[in-house]
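hiii so um. not sure if this is the right channel but i have a protein structure encoded as tokens and i wanna go backwards to a sequence. like what aa goes where. can anyone help
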């Protein structure tokens, strides 16, 4: 059911999970020593998952605005533009709203959540040994008309309410921010490090002759 492409030499897989366009790019891109050192020395705070488990994330929600990470920001942005252009095929302008990093050790996880106040999200895996990024919805697409309990032969993007996406170092995942997602429990002794980003639309939207035109400005401009 997944659609596979190669774009700029990068392997891409488009997963239409219940109509949501999830794109994973196997970029094999690595942070250099200076970038990784800078990232791991940023101020952190704890995110409490439950009474015994927490992971770290950066205090700043605009980490990619640092000049030390400009190369990574440009790399992520280029691939986000490709997501809009080649896969969603929309011409509207967007901007990067926020960017942050999470740091997970063995046994950590990030519980199910969605992202408010933006349209699309991305997750760039700086370090990952193949743990799963899990997406979920309340019920499968084929249950929306009649909520029958079907006998499933093989789970796919139409009859599933969850979808696990294995991610490794260098992978970037783009997806709609409203889609509920979580990171499963990290089982490796190697830390899992992820840079997240969010995106919102800007510029003129709609048409004057349809009396629905509006203008949205970039909050960073």
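sure thing!! here u go:
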């Amino acid at each position: 059911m997944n659609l596979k492409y190669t774009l700029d030499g990068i392997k891409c897989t488009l997963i239409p999970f219940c109509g949501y366009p999830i794109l994973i790019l196997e970029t094999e891109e690595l942070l250099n020593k200076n970038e990784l050192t800078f990232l791991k020395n940023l101020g952190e705070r704890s995110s409490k998952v439950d009474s015994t488990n927490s992971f770290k994330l950066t205090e700043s929600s605009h980490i990619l605005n640092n000049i030390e990470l400009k190369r990574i920001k440009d790399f992520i942005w280029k691939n986000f533009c490709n997501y809009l252009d080649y896969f969603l095929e929309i011409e509207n302008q967007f901007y990067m709203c926020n960017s942050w990093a999470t740091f997970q050790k063995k046994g950590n996880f990030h519980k199910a959540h969605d992202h408010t106040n933006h349209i699309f999200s991305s997750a760039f895996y700086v370090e990952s040994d193949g743990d799963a990024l899990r997406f979920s919805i309340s019920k499968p697409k084929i249950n929306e008309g009649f909520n029958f309990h079907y006998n499933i032969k093989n789970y796919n993007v139409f009859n599933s309410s969850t979808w696990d996406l294995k991610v490794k170092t260098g992978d970037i995942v783009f997806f709609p921010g409203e889609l509920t997602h979580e990171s499963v429990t990290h089982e490796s002794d190697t830390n899992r490090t992820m840079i997240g980003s969010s995106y919102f639309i800007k510029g003129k939207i709609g048409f004057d002759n349809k009396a629905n035109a509006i203008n949205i400005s970039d909050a960073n401009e």
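oh and The chain has one domain: 3-216.
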